[in-house]
Amino acid sequence: MGKKTNIQLMVDGRRIDGRLPEQLREIEMKIGEIENADGSARVRFGNTEALVAVYGPRSLFPKFLQESDMAILRVVYSMAPFSVDERKNPAPDRRSIEISKVTKDALSGAVFLEEFPRTVIDVYEYIIQADGSTRVTAINAASLALASAGIPMKDLVAACSVGKIGDVLIVDLCGKEDNYSESDMAVAMMPSKGLITLLQMDGRLTKEEVLQLLKKAEENCKKIYEMQKKALLEKFKVVGED
Ligand code: CDP
């Protein structure tokens, strides 16, 4: 289904926030700000910001929920009431339930769940500012939070959004672009394994455009992946090491 396109999103090759089509927003990654959590991370893409806390692995009760040969990953995505212009009701709605499910699926394959039978790993994703692409921002933060909790991982998961304004392909959609562009795609990857773990699309694209956007998503996920590794190295650098 097409999206509403009644506002001008591109003027003289620049987007509404002044960016070029393939320019990411300013990205910030902070690790370990929530002392009480086993792992945590805060990731900001422009005015979209996700704070994620990880607890576990810890025993799972009631026992009938346990898996005898692996841990269960439980992911809750929610938007703070103050994260958007109009107050967001904090109760889970259909959208947040769906995003919780797809982000869980995007992350599960990266975690060695089989090392922690009968336990649960809780991932709480909280959007504190929303300006487009919140699910991918939350996935980037969740991946860092899991790694910072010391949970063994096969790879980090890096994610970004891509889309189309008119016939121009763009990366990292802000809120207005998310809502009014012709099309947007959310992509998450395990870059060193070349695996896609999330792929969602809204709007209309030709098959060629889908393939071109996937390529752009992969290039940008790799850039984000490098930033994630740098953030982890800075946080966990051994004292005395250069
Ligand atoms: O955020 P994401 O792109 O993953 O998901 P979306 O459902 O496509 O939402 C697009 C954008 O709409 C969000 O990033 C917010 O900026 C905005 N939004 C909002 O203002 N109020 C909501 N209740 C939900 C989304």
Highlighted features:
about 240 residues; alpha+beta; Ribosomal Protein S5, domain 2; five-stranded mixed sheet; four-stranded antiparallel sheet; 4 helices; globular; binds cytidine-5'-diphosphate
Description of the molecule:
It is a single chain. The protein is an alpha+beta fold and 242 residues long. The chain is 27% helix and 31% strand. The chain is built from four helices and eleven strands. The strands form three sheets. It has a five-stranded mixed beta sheet with strand order 3-4-5-7-6. A four-stranded antiparallel beta sheet has the order 9-8-10-11, sandwiched between helices. A two-stranded antiparallel ribbon has the order 1-2. The chain is globular and about 55 Å long. The chain starts with 9 loop residues before the first strand and ends in a 6-residue tail after the last helix. The model has no long low-confidence stretch (mean pLDDT 95). Cytidine-5'-diphosphate is lined by residues 84, 88, 95, 130-135, 175, 178-179, 186.
**CATH architecture verdict:** 2-Layer Sandwich
CATH homology-level superfamily:
GHMP Kinase, N-terminal domain
Q: Could you give the count of β-strands?
A: 11
Average pLDDT rating = 95
Write the layout of secondary structure elements.
Elements: E1 10-11, E2 14-15, E3 27-31, E4 39-45, E5 48-59, E6 72-79, H1 94-108, E7 119-129, H2 134-148, E8 158-165, E9 168-171, H3 175-180, E10 183-190, E11 195-203, H4 207-236
Parallel strand pairs: 6-7
Antiparallel strand pairs: 1-2, 3-4, 4-5, 5-7, 8-9, 8-10, 10-11
Helix pairs in contact: 1-2
The chain binds cytidine-5'-diphosphate (CDP).
